[in-house]
Amino acid sequence: MTTAAPVKTQYEAIIGLETHCQLSTNTKIFCNCSTEFGATPNQNVCPICTGMPGVLPVLNQKVLEYAVKAGLALNCEIAPFSKFDRKQYFYPDLPKNYQISQYDLPIAEHGWLEIELVDDADNPIRKRIGITRLHMEEDAGKLVHAGSDRLSGSTYSLVDYNRTGVALVEIVSEPDLRSGQEAAEYAQELRRIMRYLGVSDGNMQEGSLRCDVNISMRPVGREQFGTKVEIKNMNSFSAIQRAIEYEIERQVAALEAGEKIAQETRLWEEGSQRTVSMRSKEGSSDYRYFPEPDLTPIQVSAAQLEQWKGELPELPAAKRHRYESELGLSAYDARVLTDDRLVAEYFEAAIALQASPKQIANWVMGDIAAYLNTEKVSITQIALKPLILAELISLIEDGTISGKIAKEILPELLVQGGSAKELVAKKGLVQISDTSELEKIIDEVIAASPKELEQYRSGKTKLLGFFVGQVMKKTNGRADPKVTN
Ligand SMILES: [Zn+2]
Asked: Smallest Cα–Cα separation from 316: which of 157, 116, 63?
């Protein structure tokens, strides 16, 4: 009798993200205090955001507009009627001892966003990730711990209330993500959408975009979810990916060893590249939510909704699809060009003036992107406006200059702008395509290299490249390579 080798259990990760996104309104959600980042601690505070008795919050209309636009961009249903609730908990950075949030009637629900990854053959793989809900809430203050980056281990802690009352939207995804890579892409797409809308700067270093991950493992084919672990403290997209990958490995190893996964909150430690236990989480906390009595319910009229819908820009996923189907760009090019709305707008302005999207794409993604990177500037800050780029490319296409010459004059155009045509004329860089002129130069080159000519004639035809090179040298790169050949 033979025994089959035990079949190794295959596990799959079930991942959902909760994202807090700071809205870029000038003032806080319920008062007129400034939201400026980096101000002197406790400079931007007033009786409302510090929770003094007897004050009344008033909803900032810009916050509602931004939340609704974000909900629409995430394909959510917008609630015609919703309200604010008090979420009670005690923490030193929360002066009221409750946070004004939304509980059972969030402003937006039941949406989705599309993530796009590429397979090994560079084909796009698209997947819709469900959005459970999006709601508005106020941010808490910030504790500054002396001698440690968190409360434990610090000698004392200070509290800065500047952030208290800054407007947030919390976006909860369905547990549709299956890998660290998918989760990182989801967070990036979310940020792209917020930036396209202009409702958040999405700056992770400044805490404008904060992601918490929920992750559990289950054997493939099983319906029931495993025990959920929460991971906090990731402040980059790659940290999200690596924290999840680490956690998948840790949980699978524990399950294979027959251990139980503890329901807990874990922290991602960037230094050691691992997650560590922060606190156990048994059941859900009782926040004793109840309707906020100081704020009237929120009603969004059909007319208002239509107006905001009409103000939405073309969003990144729609742009990617259009660049591929209408402009014939690759999925990769479409992704790169649409990552930043300003770059996409620059690209579109240039193609409106000139026929070849692929040529424009190559310049924008190549030399221009490299320049933006080195100089740390935005594409709107360069002197090379879309019109000039279009002009430069048409000079290459009609044979006036070679691509090489165009690359050479690009730095000057990037800094000074002006007319590409005039610059080419001024510098005497017009390509030589005239055959009689070229023949003269070729004769000279041949006459000057009798040895190579001899070798060429005896069959070493590879030397053609040498002769063309000599012609280029003699003309400072101005000879038309096609005609010369
Ligand atoms: Zn205030």
From this structure: 116
Gap from CA of 177 to ligand 1 centroid (Å) = 38
- For residue 344, give the nearest of 377, 378, 373, 371 by alpha carbon: 378
Residue 58 alpha carbon to ligand 1 centre in Å:
11
Q: Which secondary structure element, helix H or strand E, spans residue 88, and what is its range?
A: strand 85-88
Cα separation of 361 and 320, whole Å?
13
Q: pLDDT per residue over 353-368, tens digit each?
A: 877 899 999 999 999 9
Residue 177 · residue 15 · CB < 8 Å = yes
Q: Please write the tens of the pLDDT for every residue from 78-87.
A: 999 999 999 9
Instruction: Tell me, in angstroms, the distance from the centre of ligand 1 to residue 142's CA.
Output: 15
pTM: 0.87
323 to 246, 319, 327: CA distances (angstroms): 36, 6, 5
Dist. CA 91–CA 427, nearest whole Å: 68
Contact of 211 with 158, CB cutoff 8 Å: no
CA 272 / ligand 1 centre spacing (Å): 39
